[in-house]
Specification:
Pfam family, one: ABC2_membrane_3
Oligomer: single chain
Subcellular location: Membrane
Largest sheet: 4 strands, mixed
Membrane topology: Multi-pass membrane protein
Number of domains: 2
Strand content: 5-15%
Number of strands: 8
InterPro entries: ABC2_TM, ABCA
Protein name: ABC-2 type transporter transmembrane domain-containing protein
Radius of gyration: 31 Å
Distance between the termini: 19 Å
Shape: elongated
């Protein structure tokens, strides 16, 4: 009863202060709504869902010889020799009689049609070869490189007809990742990449010579094995490649808006976060909290009262945004989206509480909130530009803005699939290789709110404002401080 009485009095005090500073209160609520409401209404009035038919592709030949160097597989892709301009080297290791013969035969396959050829250069060890490839990558420009890559032979056994090798290709800073460590994309694309091309433009499967070198190596080895057995080889067999058909898909206006909503909310919540942190820190700077603590006020009650007051404003903005989006939620559960928005609002207010426990003056809290929220926002942008794997997503989710982005990303993917996400799909992942589900995103936002709340109370005890008595950093291990949830200052 005492705690409820204290909480009620403090909330009343905070509401009275809000009433006396009507301009700030309106600015914290009206400013976000003036940005969000018109945008959401625009999405509502122009909501569309366009269905795209299945996409199929033509096949193309891979011969593993000089024909590949001037082959044009589509009107939008240059042939290899037009991009190289001159002959390039293919490194290989280790150097021995077997690999030398194999690679000389490979080299001969690229002679005769043009001045652009694939030449081979041996190295004794893999380390020696990697050193040469790395040096060439560091010193070469866009067109004057020497090596197209290297081949590391692991097993070459003519008697047992066994061949195992690795192809090493250079990766420049501007080149996209090949993502060879997973079978499925971490961030499934909505629609096919390079839709009109027989082969995606990125990664450079064709222009890096990866496909033709692989075909040439396999053909040379099989031809040698066939000759030793007096059997027919495969050189005269046509090998064609064809992209898998891409199934029909949907592009949704709502999905596009949900993908940018985390960025938009991070911007509009900036002002309430900064003002809340400044309000709490200014009270501590005026020693108001210290005086109330002497009279028996508990630290948790003090911060909880400010949380309730701030959440009334931030939660109102998040709730209005969620309610306005309900009319366009055809496939997705409206309750789940609303809960996600309200949990994000909880995390934003807890962020402000944490900042107020770090900085003990109003001016310091303003500067600290601006800088720390900006850092959190930058991490969000980094995650949008370069989505990490599952472990990285869980790690970044300890940042409330990133956790909210990963959560809405699940909504976006399911919305694009015309399935939507509901309570029965709460822990279903949209990607087979990435287990980050909507349920995990909601849990991480709750975890964020809890760790920021606990750290706020902890810092208030070990790093209090002014001359307030402090506890040692390990106070929670002492018997007399058996409970952290109900500390008195």
């Amino acid at each position: 009863m005492v705690i409820c009485s204290q909480l009620g009095l403090l909330i009343g005090k905070n509401l009275l202060i809000q009433w006396r500073s009507k301009l700030w209160t309106l600015f914290e609520v009206i400013f976000p709504l003036l940005i969000l409401v018109p945008v959401i209404l625009l999405v509502n009035n122009n909501a569309t869902e366009e269905k795209h038919p299945e996409t199929t592709y033509t096949s193309f030949d891979v011969s593993g010889n000089s024909y590949d160097l001037d082959r044009t597989i589509s009107q939008f892709t240059k042939p290899i020799n037009a991009e190289w301009f001159s002959s390039k080297y293919l490194a290989y290791c280790p150097r021995n009689d077997t690999t030398n013969e194999l690679m000389r035969e490979l080299e001969s396959r690229y002679e005769g049609r043009s001045e652009v050829k694939i030449l081979v250069r041996p190295f004794n060890t893999e380390v020696e070869m990697e050193t040469a490839l790395t040096a060439d990558l560091a010193t070469s420009g866009a067109t004057n490189w020497t090596y197209i890559g290297g081949v590391v032979f692991e097993t070459v056994n003519n008697d047992k007809k066994q061949l195992a090798y690795k192809i090493r290709l250079p990766k420049r800073r501007q080149d996209p990742d090949w993502h060879t460590d997973g079978q499925w994309p971490v961030d499934p694309a909505n629609g096919p990449r390079s839709e009109r091309l027989a082969l995606p433009r990125e990664p450079k499967y064709w222009n890096s010579a990866f496909l033709t070198v692989q075909r040439a190596l396999d053909t040379v080895f099989i031809e040698r094995a066939a000759r030793s057995l007096n059997r027919r080889g495969i050189d005269d067999i046509t090998v064609g490649l064809q992209r898998l058909p891409y199934p029909s898909y949907v592009t949704s206006t709502l999905a596009g808006f949900l993908s940018v909503l985390p960025t938009l909310l991070a911007v509009v919540f900036w002002l309430p976060v900064v003002h809340t942190a400044r309000t709490v820190a200014a009270e501590k700077e005026a020693r108001l909290k210290e005086y109330m603590s002497v009279m028996g006020l508990r630290s948790m009650v003090y911060y909880l009262s400010h949380f309730v007051t701030a959440y009334a404003k931030v939660g109102l903005v998040a709730g209005v945004a969620g309610i306005l989006l309900i009319p366009v939620l055809v496939h997705t559960s409206a309750s789940l989206l609303l809960i996600s928005l309200l949990l994000y609002a909880v995390g934003a207010v807890m962020f402000a509480m944490l900042v107020s426990s770090i900085f003990h003056s109003g001016g310091g809290a303003i500067r600290g909130a601006v800088i720390l929220w900006l850092i959190s926002f930058v991490l969000l942008i980094i995650n949008q530009k370069n989505l990490p794997g599952f472990t990285g997503m869980v790690f970044y989710s300890f940042n409330i803005n990133s956790a909210f982005y990963f959560t809405l990303r699940v909504f976006t993917i399911y919305e694009n699939q015309s399935e939507g996400v509901g309570w029965f799909k709460l822990f279903n992942s949209p990607s087979p290789d990435n287990g980050y589900s909507l349920g995990l995103g909601l849990i991480m936002m709750i975890v964020d709110a809890l760790w920021m709340w606990l750290l706020t109370l902890y810092l208030d005890l070990v790093y209090p404002a002014d001359e307030a008595p402090s506890q040692p950093p390990w106070f929670f291990l002492l018997k007399e401080n058996h409970c952290l949830w109900w500390p008195t200052a």
